Amino acid sequence: TFDMVFTSLLKRSIKTAMCVLEGMDAMHVPMIKDWRINARHWGSLQGMTAREAADAFGAEQIKSYRKIPTERPPPGRAPPWNEEYVGLSASEMPTSESLAEVTDRVKAFWDQNVQPALEADMRVLIVAHGDTVRILQKIMRTHNVDGGIPARGRTPLLPADHPAKNFNELRGFVQP
Description:
This protein is α/β, with parallel strands linked by helices. The protein has helices spanning about 10-25, 50-55, 60-65, 100-120, 130-140, 165-170, and strands at about 5, 30-35, 125-130, 145, 150, 155-160. Strand 1 (about 5), helix 1 (about 10-25) and strand 2 (about 30-35) form a beta-alpha-beta unit. The chain is globular.
């Protein structure tokens, strides 16, 4: 079992985490929600299929948004602000994000939450989203906790991009 679960503020991540905890009969495990592991804000591309985005902005431009770290999609609507967005005012809510900006917020989340938990020998599960999971995997490949134990083998990551209805559907998705 886990000592704590980190999840984004997005429903699919929270529901996936709850599904895991229920399947493990571990509903008592604390769940910490943090906006810094939310999915990337794609601005005006938000909600579009890949085909719709390519038709609207061009396939090459979409590729640059995905691959060039500093490329930011055109602004869209900011998510509604609430007190869970610790450290951000309503006027600071993103209207789109570059991959570099997402990396910065995920790295801050890791440094302030996960690294100290691992150093305290806690077992941590992180339920996040596509880009944030890939960024966390990269961080885990380069970070060690006290005693030189690689973080990668101690912190399962569970992508919440394809929410499951029950724990058995999730077993193959947990990425150590």
